[in-house]
Design brief:
By secondary structure, the protein is α/β, with parallel strands linked by helices. The chain contains 13 helices and 16 strands. It is globular.
Length: about 400
């Protein structure tokens, strides 16, 4: 296979086998599921890290089940992101903001009191309908150079386009960048937030690999893609959200990068090499073996183990470790749309948080490890001090 950005040959980093798409939860456990290979590759020439086999966006997102959770950690993140964007002069009270893949519109809801206007574009019909019902104007569409100008004609031309955790969700992310170029004037900004490949590798987050994630961006790889469409990366910051994310600000029509960008580039140059990818693969294999051994051992000894968080990541963990409903009967999740459904691959039944907290298991496997503190605090606040938590990433441990 070859690099989708520069056509050079690529190397396989990690092969997680064939799995169903992570957010395709099942109505019934015995429903037929299509499986697709999950293979991560690295291009040494341009430092792009990509998924080998990409599914069509229509198949992945038209009936999407991921809705942004209500979370204090996310609320804090929105406030920090707003302060970063206002502090850098990328947003002000007169700004019009357009969000790509806005989901329920929680970020737009957060910033709307501080700016002139907001609009979201999201292909998931049911979720966009809910956003509109909650007062966040949301257009049902994939974001590209056709749909963005249509939305701008109806809702106003944006000064800032933001795409949070969606730039990697498409085989051809350039199309989203072209959509931003089609609606921004010179001096307008495109802000991209995405899981940061250095964190993914450093923390052995092999579970960030699932079919929705077709790219594992660095600042260097984003910079090259953005430059082709007339954007210059001028600023960046990192956040702990989702296991470590980068927030990159790109100015349309050129600009002067802050000196910090050089620092990111040189760290990436140093870190992205064959040895790093080999260690990543070895650590993923270690987690696979340890997780399976620990959970099966606990269940053999008569303990109950459920998972916490019907996450996309969790499905990669469970399917790679070969854990199913035979050892783990339930997954706890507070998303109404996921309740009563079954996790793809493992067939684990998703149950409501309240029901689970009333009659908890001996162990929770924290498949939503990115919300570790928040979830443990929530469980303890119900008076449950007995359930222990298995945290799988960056290494398997019980807390
Ligand atoms: P969460 C998703 O990944 C998918 P996932 C997507 N592809 C992506 O890129 C990242 O997000 C950013 C539940 N929960 O956000 C809600 C509780 O039940 O880690 C969610 O289903 N109780 C877009 O799926 C899940 O956990 C709680 O208290 O790996 C969290 O999913 C909290 C805080 C969450 O993402
Ligand atoms: Zn390449």
């Amino acid at each position: 296979m070859s690099c989708r950005f520069c056509s050079s040959p690529v190397e396989t980093v990690l092969d997680l086998g064939e799995t169903p798409p992570a957010n395709s939860l099942l109505e019934a456990r015995d429903m037929e599921q299509r499986r697709f290979p999950l293979v991560l590759e690295w291009c040494e020439t341009c430092s792009n890290v990509q998924l080998r086999d990409c599914l069509a966006a229509e198949d992945l997102y038209s009936h999407y089940l991921y809705v942004t959770p209500r979370s204090p950690m996310l609320e804090r993140h929105y406030a920090e992101l707003r302060q970063f964007l206002f502090g850098g002069g990328y947003l002000d009270a007169g700004s019009n903001v357009m969000e790509i893949g806005s989901n329920l519109g929680l970020f737009l809801d957060h910033i709307s009191p501080h700016v002139n206007s907001v609009v979201g574009i999201d292909p998931a019909e049911e979720i966009a309908a809910e956003a509109n019902a909650n007062g966040i104007p949301t257009v049902v569409d994939f974001f590209n150079a056709d749909s963005a100008p249509r939305a701008a004609a109806e809702h106003g031309r944006p000064n800032l386009v933001v795409g949070r955790h969606c730039m990697a969700h498409n085989e051809w992310p350039q199309e989203m960048v072209r959509g931003a170029a089609a609606v921004l004037d010179e001096g307008g900004h495109l802000v991209i937030e995405n899981a940061y490949v250095l964190n993914t590798l450093e923390n052995a987050e092999f579970d960030q690999v699932y079919h929705e994630h077709m790219y594992y961006f660095s600042i260097s790889s984003l910079e090259k893609m953005l430059a082709k469409e007339g954007f210059t990366v001028v600023d960046a910051t990192v956040s702990l959200i989702h296991g470590g994310s980068i927030i990159v600000v790109a100015r349309y029509g050129g600009g002067e990068p802050k000196s910090s960008i050089d620092g990111y580039r040189s760290r990436e140059d140093l870190f992205l090499n064959a040895g790093t990818f080999q260690r990543f693969r070895e650590r993923a294999e270690q987690v696979r073996v340890q997780l399976r051994t620990l959970v099966e051992g606990l269940v053999d000894d008569g303990h109950s183990v459920w998972t916490y968080g019907a996450t996309a990541k969790g499905n990669t963990q469970l399917n790679y470790a070969g854990l199913t409903h035979e050892t783990i009967p339930y997954c706890v999740d507070n998303t109404p749309m996921k309740r009563g459904k079954y996790l793809p691959g493992s067939g684990i039944e998703v149950i409501d948080e309240d029901a689970a907290l009333a009659d908890p298991p001996d162990f929770f496997l924290l498949t939503a490890w990115n919300y570790q503190e928040e979830i443990i605090a929530k469980v303890r606040a119900t008076g449950n001090f007995s359930s222990k938590f298995i945290v799988p990433i960056p290494f398997v441990r019980v807390v």
